[in-house]
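Input for the complex:
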Amino acid sequence: MGAEGLAERFGKHARLTASEQAALDRFEEQQRSYRRGAVVIREQENARELFVVRSGWLHSSVVLGNGSRQITRFHFPGDLVGLPLLAFPDSPETVTAVTDIVLHPFGRERVGALIAEHPRLGALLLSLAVADRVAFADRIASLGRTPARTRVAALLCEIYMRMRGLGTAEGGPIPLPLTQEDIGDATGLTAVHVNRMMRVLAEDRIIERRGGMFRVLDEARLCADAGFLDRSPVETGWLPPPR
Amino acid sequence: MGAEGLAERFGKHARLTASEQAALDRFEEQQRSYRRGAVVIREQENARELFVVRSGWLHSSVVLGNGSRQITRFHFPGDLVGLPLLAFPDSPETVTAVTDIVLHPFGRERVGALIAEHPRLGALLLSLAVADRVAFADRIASLGRTPARTRVAALLCEIYMRMRGLGTAEGGPIPLPLTQEDIGDATGLTAVHVNRMMRVLAEDRIIERRGGMFRVLDEARLCADAGFLDRSPVETGWLPPPR
DNA sequence: CGCACCTTTGAATGAGATCAAAGATGGTGG
DNA sequence: CCACCATCTTTGATCTCATTCAAAGGTGCG
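Predicted:
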């Protein structure tokens, strides 16, 4: 549970041929574990490896000149981490393990080889990168134009939806291994204010919190409060045929 | 001046073969003009075409449930517009002409064909999509963790840098065909507050404004105020060989 | 069991929003 | 060419949401 590989992820969007499946599996030959809190990729440092997340949560963050931190994205099993290394030799972001994690590292040039040998997977990869970009755009809108309560709701909603995509029980408890400071750094709020907003959401019986967990009591209202938009599934009609 | 095509853009990052060059040029066979203010792609509507920007400015925006608008990205000549259509059949964003523009429309499946026939260009496209993602991340950090003055400075700085990349004179005047409301929608501020911040920047002799133009008086200080990070040029070491 | 870290709550402060209204500017049609 | 009107910019006054500062509980780990 809570573990997914590249092939499973890609397979959600297109039926893979045996050879494609094999090519993706080859990205997961290596395996490496990190402890909660470990820094996997450090901002501004030269890095050559990307990773497939096998299990656990991570986040990408940026530290501003004024010392404050902004978390830009959370990563879950099946996600690709370190994509910016395909564009920049020095990482523009820090990638940190939120929980204990297991990753599959692989070299940049393997992506090039994948695209050359399996253009359809290359196209699918582009598709996923673009979907990611849309997620970033949604977050920009959330930060730029919505009040605190909405932003916190949006983050919880995103986590809820993503965990459900990985197969969490419907109304069951969801792990929330983030400190309120983390949530603040993701939503552009202070930890204090995050605390107040979470309390309000709990008082309104939209969520319930206990320990490092939360439970969604009223999915409809959470989505409404969060301004959640269900992005239709990734489009694959334009992909070239498999080779 | 101020016009650039796909081949020029790609050529900045890798030396193109004749056949690659030709393949990219073929994306610009069609041509279509729009007036300032025209909506090129409408949010939530089904769209099948992407565009290469030949000349002029555009922006992508999202309208939130509360009626407010967030501009997520500006597009300049040589940019690809409508990439989200590679992942979603219905556009998640509205694309609007900021000035009179000329675009080259093309179908989604052409991207698939390009990747299949020219994997290296596919990889480069992925690279550019990833670079875009990093730009989004930078903006998230700006919105989430910096004060108003910094955000406005960051936007002007971005425009300044991008215009320079397209060949604007060093200390010369730069067109700014945006209303203060537009700038507010991009920076997550009100038009009124944008006005105040621009005034402060002008009073501090960092920029100068006249008509629909601005001039950067003190590039170093603008960059410092904006927390500008010069992202190193797009990395191409991992690309597969040209076919 | 004790310490470090996290959560929670209260009170004061402040950055940016909102409300309001007076100038500029520019595009359009007569 | 000019007058008019819509749109945009500018400035002031007030209000509010979120921050900051401070301090008291919790929690879990070594």
